[in-house]
Design goal:
Elements: H1 5-25, H2 45-55, H3 60-66, H4 79-94, E1 99-103, H5 107-116, E2 126-130, H6 156-165, H7 177-189, E3 196-198, E4 208-210, H8 213-221, H9 227-248, H10 252-261, H11 265-271, E5 284-294, E6 302-307, E7 314-318, H12 326-329, E8 333-337, E9 343-345, E10 348-350, E11 353-354, E12 356-359, E13 364-367, E14 379-382, H13 400-405, E15 408-410, E16 416-418, E17 421-425
Parallel strand pairs: 1-2
Antiparallel strand pairs: 3-4, 5-6, 5-8, 5-14, 6-7, 8-11, 9-10, 12-13, 14-17, 15-16, 16-17
InterPro entries: aa-tRNA-synth_Ic (IPR002305), NA-bd_OB-fold (IPR012340), Rossmann-like_a/b/a_fold (IPR014729), tRNA-bd_dom (IPR002547), Tyr-tRNA-ligase (IPR002307), Tyrosine-tRNA_ligase_regulator (IPR051270)
Protein name: Tyrosine--tRNA ligase, cytoplasmic
Catalytic activity: tRNA(Tyr) + L-tyrosine + ATP = L-tyrosyl-tRNA(Tyr) + AMP + diphosphate + H(+)
Length: 443
């Protein structure tokens, strides 16, 4: 459902070209490499019957558990999320492979395949796993979060920009995407006589070479290496790794393929079915309350002036008097829905809504907490729904906000989510959170 079939066909061509270029840059021979598309066998009668057979033996519990780290976990899952792990297991048989290789997040699907394929009379396969490298912004790497990853075709300037913004806290060796990249990519690719060089000015200690990752990690933990020096050194290695791939993609046919496989977002939207209640329609932003007062005609309402990155602060009326003291509202950073149709509340026009987590028994309300280090006006988007521009004003007749709001809630981890997808900053990718209310509706 993420892309139309004609676009998917182009992307499989692109993936094939990109993987070949990547392996060629590492001097891996391609003579025995073969690419198979799912549609080459998944539309056959035999595969369909095996889907039915597998569905008759896999329990709902095992299917849900197998997809726990790969499939989005929501309160009311669609049936496809339960079918998915079994389909991946069947791929092993229909591809006639000896082994399957994937990230460690696939381990539960691998366990399901080992348990259930023999029940259909098929062989148990070997499973190989890689660690998951954290994203550059901290947390999990995400295809929808541009700055969390380095793309194969990123130019040196883009690499520099992404690494400059990357999370790389001094001394932090556990949640550090750049350090993880050196561990799982750079050091394994080094030849026996090669070293990883930290380049720095003489006044900061001069260059230093590392032949073992453990020595680099220990030095970073002791803050003997500055994050800026680590980033600059990793930048050089990444650009060196990407250079042969860029050279291959100078081919005019591959450049044309790349443009067709990844057209601008507006073109994709024009070709694909557009869901009129997509969360991409919501204009949610970080705001800062610069002035707050009690409503002159309503005891339960505050009248706030909120900086939303516009020329003038907006007036927003919120029913928070009984839940947040006025002194805590002043200069508070909040999350605001900005494209509701303006409405008068006891004679004062409100041009937005401060989003809050709320429960009824006992009645508690908490304004959502904006992402770390976010600024007024910064866009908040739903993960995987961040393409395109929001509506100027939500059409009240279509009840867009009402339809979307029912799936907005806080998670058990205190993240704000829509159908299990986090609300994140479009700039940093950092999440919107709440102070203490879990599994609470957001309104």
């Amino acid at each position: 459902m993420k892309a139309p079939w004609d676009l998917l066909a182009l992307r499989t061509e692109y993936y094939e070209a990109a993987i070949k270029a990547m392996l060629t840059s590492l001097e891996v021979p391609l003579e025995k490499l073969r690419f198979v598309r799912g549609t080459d066998y998944q539309l056959s009668k035999e595969f369909t019957l095996d889907v039915y057979r597998l569905s008759s033996v896999i329990t709902e519990h095992d299917a849900k558990k197998a997809g726990a780290e790969v499939v989005k976990q929501v309160e009311y899952p669609v049936l496809s999320s339960l079918l998915y792990p079994g389909l991946q297991a069947l791929d092993e048989e229909y591809l006639k492979v000896d082994a399957q290789f994937g990230g460690v997040d696939q381990r539960k699907i691998f366990t399901l395949a080992e348990k259930y394929l023999p029940r259909l009379g098929y062989a148990k396969r070997i499973h190989l796993m890689n660690p998951m490298v954290p994203g550059l912004t901290g947390g999990k790497m995400s295809a929808s979060e541009e700055d969390s990853k380095i793309d194969l075709l990123d130019s040196p300037a883009v690499v520099k920009k992404k690494l400059k913004k990357a999370f790389c806290e001094p001394g932090n060796i556990t949640e550090n995407g750049i350090l993880s990249f050196t561990k799982h990519v750079i050091f394994p690719l080094m030849k026996q006589d090669e070293v990883f060089k930290i380049c720095r000015a003489e006044e900061h200690g001069g260059n230093v070479d590392y032949s073992k990752f453990e020595d680099l990690e220990q030095a970073y933990a002791k803050q003997e290496i500055h994050p800026g020096d680590l980033k600059a050194s990793v930048e050089q290695v990444i650009n060196k790794l990407l250079a042969p791939i860029h050279e291959i993609f100078k081919d005019s046919k591959l450049q044309e393929l790349t443009k067709k496989a990844y057209p601008p977002a507006k073109k994709v939207a024009a070709n694909a079915a557009v869901d009129e209640v997509s969360p991409a329609k919501l204009d949610i932003r970080v705001g800062r309350i610069v002035e707050v007062s009690r409503h002159p005609d309503a005891d339960s309402l505050y009248v706030e002036k909120i900086d939303l990155g516009e020329e003038e602060p907006r007036v927003v009326v919120s029913g928070l008097v009984n839940y947040v003291p006025i002194e805590e509202m002043q200069n508070r950073n909040v999350v605001v829905l900005c494209n509701l149709k303006p409405a008068k509340m006891r004679g004062i026009e409100s041009k937005g809504m401060v989003l809050c987590a709320s429960i009824d028994e006992p009645k508690q309300v908490e304004p959502l907490l904006p992402p770390k280090d976010s600024q007024p006006g910064e866009r908040i988007v739903v993960e995987d729904y961040d393409s395109g521009e929001p509506d100027d004003v939500l059409n009240p007749k279509k009840k867009i906000w009402e339809k979307l709001q029912v799936d907005l809630k806080t998670s058990a981890d205190l993240f704000a989510v829509w159908q299990g997808n986090k609300l994140i900053s479009k700039v940093s990718g950092n999440p919107v959170t709440t102070k203490s209310l879990i599994n609470a509706p957001i309104k």
